[in-house]
Amino acid sequence: MTAGPRLVVVGDPAGRRVAFFQDALRAAGLPGARAVPWTDVLRGGARFAAGETVRIDSPGEVPEVDLLLRGADDPARVEGSRLWYERFTAALAGLAAEAGRSGAVLVDDPAETAVLFDKRLTHGRLAAAGVPVPASPTSGPGGAPVRGWDDLVALMAGAGLRRVFVKPAHGSSASGVLAVETAGAGRVQAATSVERDGAGRLFNSLRVRRYTGAREVGALVDALAPDGLHVERWLPKAVQGGRAADLRVVVTGGRATHAVVRTSRSPLTNLHLGGARGDLAAARTAITAAGRRWEDAVAVCEGAAAAFPGTRCVGVDLLPGAGWRRFAVGEVNAFGDLLPGLTGLAGSGAEGLDTYGAQVADLLEHPPAPPPVRPPASTAGPRTTGTSTAP
User: Fold this and answer.
1) Cβ atoms of residues 167 and 123 within 8 Å
2) Percent of the chain at pLDDT above 90?
3) Where are the beta strands (DSSP E) in the chain?
4) Is 91 exposed, middle or buried (0-12, 13-18, 19+ CB in 10 A)?
């Protein structure tokens, strides 16, 4: 069996993500990782040992974990993402502190994970790094707040935007995302997977629906705003087979290792919302026909990942513009690697490996640096020299 780090994975021990990671370890000839459930972390019971390497994975959709993070009675509920974020980032800080006390090492920088789970901060960091992103009035820590529908209307008017994506600042998997379009005479409509019940509560569904009119759309925005909102220009996307198309590109160890085209008849291309995997070879051909190179698209994704140097693997949502001539980054996902059955790109170094196998290979080739060895604390007390060392 191959020698390697003593691995711990924090996640859902019964979930697909942890199972895929364990499979990748076994395929590499490594022993399985010790699995620590998020429930232990959130209740303060997670402990590590010196010499362990700790990989933090998604909390997933475990009802008990969701209740601890959001206080929601149903994982399908949209509201509560601000509280989720506050508790999640506090848990990350606790994990980092525990790792520091025990002499374990984290695979990823938890401070960067916290930025990646705030779309406003992520957008601002990408823009500062020169990565092409859609225009946004809410970008960065100094971005404009969106307290409700009236704020959104004013921001759109001030920036000359008639089509925008409105995203919960701390959401994921398109939860609560609205694709908003405005036209003359006050006409407005929004495409979203959000469904409202009779009490006005918001739920995620697997069907994209349309809301029309300022009253309906405005009510959704008002309900989402307390959790924080990010707004960005809705860029016209490239088309493949008559469907809107974008790409999820996984960057591992600084290199684009996996890519999948996502296509949809709606503005939301997420695969769980009815999107379908497209033809990557056809996309590369279209890029070349437009006078660009596939390497140009890859470079944008790797540049986005480079803005988060302390994070080993990210999923970059690349938005090819109409005609496949231009590229922008829509999002960077800390846990964007769940793409079952997808093997590595030719020339990436991950050929024949899935996204988890590529991460295991990267860990073996570039193990995280161990924490610095601190000298034992002296028990003799401070020495007195008679000379002040005050500045």
Assistant:
1) no
2) 82
3) 6-11, 34-37, 52-56, 105-106, 163-168, 178-182, 188-196, 202-212, 229-233, 238-240, 243-252, 255-264, 276-277, 313-320, 327-333
4) buried
Please list, in sequence order, all residues whose beta carbon lies within 8 angstroms of the beta carbon of residue 253, skipping any fewer than 6 positions away: 312, 313, 358, 362, 365, 366
Give, in order, the Cα–Cα distances in Å from 148 to each of 145, 151, 226, 227, 276: 9, 6, 8, 11, 33
Token pair belonging to 109: 């920088």
The number of beta carbons lying within 10 Å of the beta carbon of residue 103 is 15
Looking at residue 383, its pLDDT comes to 34
Decide: 260 and 266 in contact? Cβ < 8 Å: no
C-alpha–C-alpha distance, residues 344 and 366, integer Å: 18
Residue 93 to residue 178: CA distance in whole angstroms: 31
First vs last Cα of the chain: how many Å apart?
56
pTM, rounded to two decimals: 0.92
